[in-house]
Amino acid sequence: MxxxxxxxxxxxxxxxxxxxxxxxxxxxxxxxxKGKEVExxxxxxxxxxxxxxxxxCGNGTDALTVLLKVHNLPKGSEVILPANTFIATAEAxxxxxxxxxxxxxxxxxxxxxxxxxxLINPNTSAIIAVHLYGHPADxxxxxxxxxxxxxxxxxxAAQAHGALYRGKKAGSLADGAGFSFYPGKVLGAxxxxxxxxxxxxxxxxxxxxxxxxxRSLKYFHExxxxxxxxxxxxxxxxxxxxxYLDSWVExxxxxxxxxxxxxxxxxxxxxxxxxxxxxxxxxxxxxKTEKRDHLQEYLKNCGIxxxxxxxxxxxxxxxxxxxxxxxxxxxxxxxxxxxxSLPIGEHLSAEEVAFVAGKIKGFFVKNI
Length: 368
Known about the structure:
Number of helices: 13
Number of domains: 2
Radius of gyration: 21 Å
Number of strands: 14
Oligomer: single chain
CATH architecture of the largest domain: 3-Layer(aba) Sandwich
Distance between the termini: 25 Å
CATH superfamily of the largest domain: Type I PLP-dependent aspartate aminotransferase-like (Major domain)
């Protein structure tokens, strides 16, 4: 048996008629930029997440960049973010002339509120909570910290499509949020695409203009912006897929539950957990084991695809090596060599999950 980490071909085959029809409509209309499908998606996704405004853009990195830009944070001020996240979170900070400061993570892979608060100083302007692997950060505690210190609080929700925190959708929990619709996400386009979610009408208007060369009318530019627009083809695909998002999140939860049930008696690995206050999107199912590399190679030889997210925490990256002075003792630095992502998604059958779990058990029996 071969088990794919991600199977976009299978997903497409199940939605082929709907996606092909949507794409053909775009070509028939020949409105490839700012077509009606874009506005439809913006409205639908805003409603889905429970916010007032969704501003589509070219990708998730741009979404975070624009989110920070339109809030006019003081140049050179510090933005606290978790040390374990994709580099895009930090890139958005740097590209705005701001300074990233890395906080440690909790056991659930999200930013530690205690670590974040310990890093606040008079030059701090914001905190970015990353809902890593699809698990929402502890937003109530982070919100109290942000209010206490008069800071902005933002969500990097690039991996949390459909996730819930205390009954509210990821993307609706702070001063604004950035989403990615990279094809491998729980809600993925057929290429790069992103969105900024906001409730403030004035800031949303500025974000919309900024993504479109700073213009309010054609050839009338109120300020210098950027060119970051979701093309109509991507919006058409997302409009089809959005209808299935909740069922996909439900399927991912079933897979995660099955993994946990079947692997709970393997002491050599640390499993992620379910938490009563959240509904995870389970973008990734990440285990920890000191035998990570050997296990990954073994599973590969068994026909099972896995991933590593991420091989290095951000302070371990050459781009941010100067931060190691205060991050060396972090949980995320110590654990970065133990993380292994197992296959998860609506494409997996119960038999495939059992096959993966069985092979993992077999590996540790052989390697005791």
